[in-house]
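hey can u check if this looks right to u? its 565 residues, i copy pasted from the old doc so theres a chance i mangled smth
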Amino acid sequence: MSDPIEPSTSSSSTKDPALLIHPRREPFEHGLLPIPKLIFTDPTQTLIPLKQKLIEQSSSHRVNSAAISEVLQISIDHARLVLDTLASVLHSESDPLLKSKPDVVDEVGADVNDLVLFLYIQSYKKLLPRTHKDSAAVADVWPSTSAFDGYLSALSPLQLVRSNSRRFVPSQADEEAHQLSYLQKHLANIVSLLAEPVEGEGEESLVLTMEKFEHLGFLFYFGDKGSEGYHLGQYAPFFANSDPDMPAVPVPAAQVHDWVLQNIVSSLENISERISPKENGPPSSSDQDVPMADACTSTNKGSICVRGPSFIEGISKSSLIKQASDLKGSSVKVLNCHDSVIYILAPLRYATVYGCSDTTIVLGAVGKAVRIEHCERVHVITAAKRICIANCRECMFFLGVNQRPLIVGDNHKLQVAPYNTFYGQLEEHMNEVGIDATINRWNEPLALGVVDPHDSLSHPAGVSDAQAESGSHLDPEQFTNFLIPNWYGGESEGSTKDNPFPLPDIYVASQQRNQNNLGEVKQLLREAPLEENRKRELSTALHVYFKDWLYASGNIRQLYCLQGE
């Protein structure tokens, strides 16, 4: 089964896009954990006995945190992290783990087959970023070097990303090809983890039942509309016509391997044919990088992709709003934005923020996972099931999260605070994606290692590991509510009239003190024993100082953008 088959000789360019196989991006983008004990040098030899031990823990073939902790020899906190991370990237929406309330997750547990596939891909290495087509233009947009650079020998996250030839995140096609190539290389091992021997015929006669075959849907899907809605077995010739009332006959593992491998080869050929013309000629409009914006950005700016995530890339010194009707799909990536305010007021499954600086980003309701990476001086406000923060500096996170914030990599001077905003449809969006406003674990960050074994760019081989710097709690005296403008009047109306996440008492008390202080100042100004002309001078001075603050803080742009709308 380990011998590769010959690639198909038919032209992949004529193949129906609906019949092409794709890697599921979610496990590779949101499912990798830098926990050394989860990364095996020989995954098959290690995971097959581990799988058997896991099965022995439960007659239902589902395991909880305690079983994972015992078998993998990791802490109970890390075991629960494995369980929660796996749940966030599962392919089957019908899996009971996804429908479980946080307090009963351990009672439900994870399917052993999904868990071993999740553990196997922990050996994946991310693709190195590509070079931006217009590095000079990018260099003009980015701010000066970080204040940290005077006394830290290591490069800051953005310097690292922008070093040398101004590297940027790989293209979607490059990442898909890289993920497919990884799965192609490891396919024989992956299939063997799901296979089982025919009774009485020994280990050489491995077969896959239809149920086990469907678990490959954790890693693959067919078609150009996304990974939801169809079972993998519908595309496999050996299961496609199975009688739903009768159990399908198990298929030899070698036959499954060869069929999947043929489809991977065909998809890689298709990707190669799509990429080659772009390298030798002018790029098509759908593949060009989004130009840097220099003025107020309306809702039709930014790159949107019909298949896969919507992109907001290269926004600079602007304000931008996206609502659900502006987005294609249920995932968003905010890339390389600078000195801007970005509102994404929509129900989402996944969100990624990468390589941004001096920007405020509001993410509506994210039901699966948020990842913030390689950012500096960014404020992120989000209601989400879970969030991972990696390689960031001087960033603030205002969070309404149902799981512990995960902090990994080389971080410095991070601050976390409770959620501080709302918009009309927020609670509707939270209910749609399954976020519970009664649970907010913003103040329980979990820090893992500084070295990410999946990322050879940030952490070259040989660098010693240490625990990542965690986030400190924002001083309650510095906590303020964030007001989202009502950009479109009636279109954004909804039932949410206040922050749905209860604030901790210490923050409520601080807000009350600030309100009282403001009231006292207003009262003193009203009762000040001044002549009318002196009162006018005082009023004028206050307006001048306020206007100066608007310009110094950059908030004046938001007012211009609101007027422009």
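The chain is about 35% helix and 15% strand.
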